[in-house]
Amino acid sequence: MRLTTRLLAASALAVSGTLALVAPAGAQDAATVERAAAIRDAALSRNIALDYVTQITTRFGARPAGSHSEQQAAAWAAGYMREHGFQNVRIEQFPLVGWERGEESAAVLGDHPQRLVVAALGHSPGTNGVIEAEVVRFETLEALNAAPAGSLAGKIAYVDPGQMVRMQDGSGYGPLTRIRGAGPAAAAAKGAVAFVIRSVGSDEHRMPHTGTTRYVDGVVPLPGFALAAPDADQLSRLIAMGGPVRISLSSTAHTYQTVSQNVVGEITGATRPHEVIVLGSHMDSWDLGTGAIDDAAGGAITLAAAKTIAESGRRPARTVRVVLYGSEEVDQPTNTGNGGGAYLRGIGSEVENHIIAGESDFGADRIYALGLPPGAQGSDFAKAAGRVLYPIGVLPSADPELHGGADIGPLAGAGVPVFGLNQDGTRYFDLHHTADDTLDKIDPAQMSQNVAAWAALVWLIADSDVDFRAMRPAAQAAH
Amino acid sequence: MRLTTRLLAASALAVSGTLALVAPAGAQDAATVERAAAIRDAALSRNIALDYVTQITTRFGARPAGSHSEQQAAAWAAGYMREHGFQNVRIEQFPLVGWERGEESAAVLGDHPQRLVVAALGHSPGTNGVIEAEVVRFETLEALNAAPAGSLAGKIAYVDPGQMVRMQDGSGYGPLTRIRGAGPAAAAAKGAVAFVIRSVGSDEHRMPHTGTTRYVDGVVPLPGFALAAPDADQLSRLIAMGGPVRISLSSTAHTYQTVSQNVVGEITGATRPHEVIVLGSHMDSWDLGTGAIDDAAGGAITLAAAKTIAESGRRPARTVRVVLYGSEEVDQPTNTGNGGGAYLRGIGSEVENHIIAGESDFGADRIYALGLPPGAQGSDFAKAAGRVLYPIGVLPSADPELHGGADIGPLAGAGVPVFGLNQDGTRYFDLHHTADDTLDKIDPAQMSQNVAAWAALVWLIADSDVDFRAMRPAAQAAH
User: Are B234 and A439 within 8 A, CB to CB?
Assistant: First the structure.
């Protein structure tokens, strides 16, 4: 019998501010919901999230995928999990092509030379010396693609689509990453010697946002650089003033063979331990900052949520598994080089017992909406979850949650349902992939609310027998 | 007869929102005040400030004192003044010891190496290779001064007084610059090999604030570095975790002999041209940003104020002189290396005809208060100025204005009265002396209000015969 059926009676009751459910027909379910509220409130008052994110970012700093730092941080995190009562803690290694930033610089040349602040894009090749060339500016990827063949021979392609729009759900990001990913290949196709993009971010600081570019035939085709927003403004103004603008670019970035690893630990289920709920985040970070919001915060939130459940006085029926994925920040020709793919390969047929997966990889600000798999939307389970989460400001999401992020994407692709606790990303893209992604950007109060939402929701799933795979979308979703 | 007397009658009239003076006994003065209001409103609607600050920061980027860039920018600015109708435009050269940042880097050493974001402090010597040493942390300059003799032998002194307080009047800055200035000498006295200070700023970005340090016997005694706020947090946390923390520091900064220059131009007075009102700001900037708020904005504001007056349809009686001082951002053993001292030497006995001086060197945000010389406070002149400035949100300042800033300080020292249009500095020290001091940080609407306040006040002074030197502080200031 499912939680969804049992809670039907309770869902008609008024709730104001705090959870005020009277016992429905099934006492076990009422207890589950009440315990979810208690877990929520416990997480609000204290958790290990701040401790974890402080320690990992302070001890190890940046943790690029496959770096010694990521490896050391993973070993430390496994110890941290054990120390905090997690079971079956293990490290799963996998090979990948690592990328190391070297020295890099850029400048406007000519009568009035000026330094430009750039960051090589992830997996960009080095420049093999200094490139000095004229810049040709485009406002869109389409315009670059439409340039005549050979028209950029010996030149630098510069795409400046304007500043990213700052949105709660981060939806301004996707269209711009398409340019970042495809830009080097598009520029190479027209004969360009390098590719420059206005840094994909919503801030106006001289703090470029790095990020991946797309492999073609096993390599990124051209050196690519993100230009900090104020520098992009400056370069575009200089071009608008007329006359050719020449710049220099240099980078000693290079790739290397290495290993990364997932760190896995769990709160083993009391009665149905083979049924697994996966909470994902990633261990690696870009090299410029210390990866506090991207994504030590996700590890902190999911670890704290699981620990809050473990300390609630009773274990849930199902297993809550926390995975700190290695090497999320890569975009290689195959999926072999990232932690999500490695985890899926590692579990083999166990994937059938994976009830649901959720990913925390969007900073540490507050959760504002819950997205459930399509079949669960408007269900009694959703109503129960809504009652527990409403008092901390979480509403149902309008969008069904289908895909998760890069870490749980492979699980989703293999048929595991996913949920999303949508968090406020308004300031996320001010910081993400920059040197400014540091501990001080975490707001402890918002992070506690975030942990509370995770802990309560995961408890509800883990101490029930709800089967998200079996749920079918209703023809007309309930309101 | 002075404006102060003539305006007595008008000062009793009610004013609400816009200036509504009826003609007092002296029609000329009423006309002056009315024209001040018209000039104020003209400045609000348009001015050249945004054009100037855009052009100079875009064309020349950073303009370090004595650099080729500062020299080129000065020549360009002289042309800009002529083009915009300024008279007697001239460039006054003077020698100085310039300072050039080279390559610089810092890192935490040990098992978990981490990059630290630093900026060498102005006029710091280079490190002559890489310094690797243990860090000793102090919270105050006093604590560093109290360290036993020789106790820092071979070590790096690190002063972390905590984050600067963000204040409208910038008053959090002074106490911390004392540490920055005196730190290298204090550290050297205890045997240290380098000095590091938490970057003096109110932001939390990985954008260190550079700034001057104090010369001792003709040189800055030790290499000194500003550590960006998040990195200062990180280093202090690592030290608090226990065990010695070693860091590396390197810098190839060096000094060199060069010249800087003041650019001077004026709106010549119609009837008493030998009486001069000086509006000051500085041309040079630190090397990290493009010096938009520090201090291309000051040049933009004072040039736009003077031009608004020139275009008002009638020239004022007195001369309004705009000086774009060279080499403000230095702190050398003598005053010979800065533009303020050079200007004073250049004018000789003409200083007697300098009616008053004002300096715009605090960004481009709105003016909120007017500070007049002690004798003018509560005077009829102050009341007239108050009426013109009140509609744009400017109140009388509680503090008498005595000293000005570094540019007009030498004039003040020679007996020239000064005024201050206090501007909102709440966000100034987030940006000042960092790479982030760029054009996008200018708010055009606030800058227009700023220009309006300058233009209206300067008109009131320039078209009157008020003598600030002759005014004596009242025993009891009027309210």
Answer: yes
